[in-house]
Amino acid sequence: MAEAQESDKGTVREYRMAELAKEAGITVRTLRFYRERKLIPPPRREGRIAWYDEHHLARLRTIAALLERGHTLGGIAELITAFEHGRDVGELLGLGELPQWTEETPVRLTPEDLADYFEGEVTAENLAAALDLGYLATDGDQIVHISRRLLDVSAALVREGVPLAAVLAAGRQVREHADAMAGLFTSLVGTHMAKGPDDIGDALERLRPLAKSVVEAELSMAMDRRLARPGQD
């Protein structure tokens, strides 16, 4: 029988090897193989008894789902490595929540959800790039995408035939230009709009919709100019 252990976070259900294998719908032999391949983290040991918990079960279900989606065990191992070396949400966002100025809505995803969003494109390299760029962060057994809008746009571009690696490379370039534009508008606040240090926050909030309108208008006109002379840089 699985046991329930008390911890600081409440009751934690734990399993012996055979119990975990049964819950996950695999054989004990397969579970041992996954453990030897380091596809699951080591169990908690109590003497000669190995105890597994819900995180192990979630990992096994993720492995099964990714296998169903055509990933190989080698590819899954690479994804897990990239996932485990990614920054967590608290590290990425500073205080564990989105900064007060952002309008973006984060999205919580399982690894299976991410694989469904970008079918065939979720590789260790792309996952590592997205984690490094800050599009993705980790939170326990889940992945958090920093922005619903960016997630949807990225998925739409991939559906249009743009490789995810190219989408991420373009995202990095856009980030650099966006940082430069943010610096430009912030300097306007400090020079012309803020009445003092205490007013900078309010001035930035007043500037936000104006800056967005300027960028949207300029980008729209730039796209029109590109359409008027296709093939030219």
Overview in brief:
With 233 residues, this protein is α+β, with helices and mostly antiparallel strands. It has ten helices and seven strands.
Q: Would you tell me the overall average pLDDT?
A: 86
Name the poorly predicted regions: 95-99
Rg over CA atoms, rounded to whole Å, is 23 Å
Counting DSSP E segments of at least 2 residues, the number of strands comes to 7
Shape assignment: elongated
Secondary-structure element order, N to C: EEHHEEHHHEHHEEHHH
State the helicity in percent bands. 55-70%
- Terminal Cα separation, in Å? 68 Å
Strand numbers in spatial order across the main sheet = 1-2-4-3
Strand portion: 5-15%
The assigned structural class equals alpha+beta
Main sheet, how many strands, which sense, barrel? 4 strands, antiparallel
Number of helical segments?
A: 10
Question: Can you describe this structure?
Answer:
This protein has 233 residues and is an alpha+beta fold. It is built from 10 helices and 7 strands. A 4-stranded antiparallel sheet has the order 1-2-4-3. Strands 5-7-6 form a 3-stranded antiparallel sheet. It is elongated, with a radius of gyration of 23 Å.
Task: Give the arrangement of secondary structure elements.
Blueprint: E1 3-7, E2 10-15, H1 17-24, H2 28-36, E3 44-46, E4 49-53, H3 54-68, H4 73-84, H5 89-93, E5 107-109, H6 111-117, H7 124-133, E6 136-139, E7 142-145, H8 148-159, H9 164-193, H10 200-228
Antiparallel strand pairs: 1-2, 2-4, 3-4, 5-7, 6-7
